[in-house]
Design a protein that fits this description.
Number of strands: 3
Oligomer: single chain
CATH class: Alpha Beta
Structural class: mainly alpha
Number of domains: 1
Order of helices and strands: HHEHHEHEHHH
CATH architecture: 3-Layer(aba) Sandwich
């Protein structure tokens, strides 16, 4: 069996960036040929909104980012579902972990975001890995020195969570 792996992720990408990537022919061709598609998106949307919140103390920037992320992810999934793949693919999303365990509003925002991500698990061929629960209480062990991105143990746990989805 031949397995081919292609990664189009980039650090700092928002859900809007992921949606825009689907407009590029090379990415669309890869997605159209893929049997397994994984998407992790939304963390940078929330981080950008949190930066705005720290400046203006307006919680609306966070709820607006969540709404915009939901809209973008919905469009991403629609584009993938509309491809001529005859349902011969699986699409796996991941909800978000909280790297900011000492900031109460961060956990509130991430849980709200995860609620919307989990709702996409009802769509055709889509399942959602619960990364939030995997990381909860183990952030110091699973996050890199900078504390935002996972370390190798964290990425391994994310892969395990994805592999457990049937």
């Amino acid at each position: 069996m031949h397995i081919s792996y292609q990664k189009y992720a980039r650090s700092g990408a928002t859900t809007e960036d992921v949606l825009a990537m689907l407009d590029t022919p090379i990415v669309m061709e890869a997605v159209n040929c893929a049997n397994i598609i994984t998407i992790t998106a939304g963390g940078d949307d929330l981080i950008n909104a949190a930066k705005g919140y720290l400046i203006n103390k307006n919680e609306e920037s966070i709820s607006q980012a969540i709404k915009q992320s939901e809209n973008n992810i919905s469009k991403i999934l629609k584009k993938i579902h509309q491809l001529d793949k005859q349902d011969k693919y699986i699409l796996r999303l991941q909800n978000l972990y909280n790297p900011f365990i000492d900031i109460p509003i961060a956990d509130e925002a991430i849980r709200a975001f995860n609620s919307l991500i989990n709702s996409f698990g009802r769509e055709m061929n889509v399942k959602v890995a619960d990364i939030y629960s995997v990381f909860k209480g183990k952030e110091k062990f699973l996050l890199s020195t900078g504390g935002i991105h996972p370390n190798s143990r964290g990425y391994y746990q994310m892969a395990l969570a994805l592999s457990r989805l049937r």
